Amino acid sequence: MGIDPGVASTGYGVVRFDGGRVAALDGGVIETPAALEPGRRLVRIHEAVTELLRRHEPDAVALEDLYFGKNVRSAVGVGQARGVVMLAAAQAGLPCFDYTPQAVKMSVCGTGGASKEQVQRMVGALLGLDGPPSSDHAADALAVAICHANRAAFEVAAAGAARDARTVGVTP
Amino acid sequence: MGIDPGVASTGYGVVRFDGGRVAALDGGVIETPAALEPGRRLVRIHEAVTELLRRHEPDAVALEDLYFGKNVRSAVGVGQARGVVMLAAAQAGLPCFDYTPQAVKMSVCGTGGASKEQVQRMVGALLGLDGPPSSDHAADALAVAICHANRAAFEVAAAGAARDARTVGVTP
Q: Which three-class secondary structure state does DSSP give residue A166?
């Protein structure tokens, strides 16, 4: 499950990776009203993420590392939303992985310098959707989920290659 | 209860404000080992704060607004710790108040430009401790708790004055 955390809008996307193909299982946005007290907004995000983890039982949670293009005030806000998402994942016993925006773009578009629109189009194409996801936040969450699925598949393949090499007596 | 959130060290301080005098009830630091997975560190902070709130049953939680003198990366880290503290407060049904470092220094030392050492000395003196608190983080947490106690006492007094003014037919 990929998550794009934010106090007002937290995107989520769940993908299944199977035999080299990736498919979307769910995607959407958790929204919290600005009128709500800040602590109550975090309660909503924490509850919604906990419920999504319970429903989908993913193997892992992936988040984008959002240190760039932010000022310190907005970074604190994103950090607060991120904190309750990481807490929900750890409470569910799941590992949490961070990816830089460059790694996500590279994984989805083949170039670390892809535009937001290219990422959205490629997410739609890779997942076989009718078009790009309508929400930016859901698209970003699906993109980081795809990035993690690719990385995890690569590591499984690399571990398999190392094992095969050992079987035939080659030092990996 | 004042809290100075941080991933490695979260300071806390509990004060009672009664008839113009402020007294320390508790103070200390929640520490999490760097070797622990980031999500597990947040679980520790959330559990420890939840337990402190249960034990002391404070009226409110006060946090320092730490937007200054931070880079974006450390702001995200502080934000993550802050998020789980705000979550614990909201889950306990408590309001959370933010104070700027200037407001805290003004309240404790009478000047917004006081040094860290002046704040620590004044916290020790105001609370009648034998000396300044040994931990920076506990001192900062006690300072923000004192700041909130002063503000809350002022607001109660102002509301009382307005009520008295109405009683004698004076528009406040």
A: helix
Q: Which residue from B81, B95, B96 is facing A83, i.e. has the nearest CB?
A: B81
**Of A68, A72, A80, which has the smallest distance from its Cβ to B67's Cβ?**
A72
Q: Which residues of chain A are within 8 Å of residue B67 when distances are taken between CB atoms?
A: 72-73, 76
Residues of A in contact with B79 (CB under 8 A): 75-80, 82-83
ipTM of the complex: 0.85
How far is it, in rounded angstroms, from Cα B157 to Cα B135? 33
Q: For the structural domain made of B2-167, what CATH number should be given?
A: 3.30.420.10
CATH topology of domain A2-165: Nucleotidyltransferase; domain 5 (3.30.420)
Tens digit of each residue's pLDDT (9 = 90 or more) over A135-170: 989 999 999 999 999 988 777 777 777 777 766 655
Contact B90, A37 (CB under 8 A): yes
Reported pTM: 0.88
Helices B136-167 and B116-126: angle between axes, nearest 10 degrees: 60
CA atoms of B75 and B91, how far apart (whole Å): 24
Domain ranges of chain B: 2-167
- What is the DSSP secondary structure assignment for residue B33, as one 8-state letter? -
Rounded distance, CA A3 to CA A101, Å?
13
In chain B, what residues touch A90 (CB-CB under 8 Å)? 37, 39-40, 42-43
